[in-house]
Here is the input.
Amino acid sequence: MTAAVGAPGRNHCIAVLGGSFDPVHQGHVALARLFAGLLRPDALRILPAGQPWQKNGLQASDRDRVAMLELAFGALKSPSLPVTIDLQEIERNTPTYTVETLRALRKELGARTSIVFLMGADQLRKLDSWNEWRELFALANLGVATRPGYDLAQEALPPVVAQELSTRLATPDTVRLLAHGKVCLAPTLDVDLSSSQLRAALQSGADASALGMAQVLDYIQQHNLYKN
Here is the structure.
């Protein structure tokens, strides 16, 4: 894939979805599916965090989280959309910052490739708390989708984030063609889920079928995960 990305005469687009995925849930897959349709990327990278600096310790092991990701995103794979579970943040074995991961991806994929980092509106609303957050735009584009209760209107964002976005908004086609620096907003994703909601349901013994995919829930049950 790396060699093809640098091929002359064509701009490649790689969509990147990072997260703790502890566990992966319907919202993660819906976000990836939405932008797969909008951007028509050449590949999708799923990046499970190793030691996420903004969250407490992970409950599931790296091995279990990766296994659940393979189950969850298997249906999204196709000849036109390769899906890869990228383990670089896990293998780094240090607190993981998105900016460092994007630097590594930019070095790997080259200067011309459009890298689109996907996130929900809840993450955009606290983007200014991320490490070297302005540097993200020098490395990648952002694809941001709504989440119920999180407004994408500029007045709902921190002023510094709203100001930064004011000159960066672009259509999916533009984002697909440009290597970095643009933001595509998708106000059409109406999925209100979080990993903490799913963990709480699993720990309480409540029905979690509306929150997680059947194959992932089966894996969780078989491996006795998220019981306490």
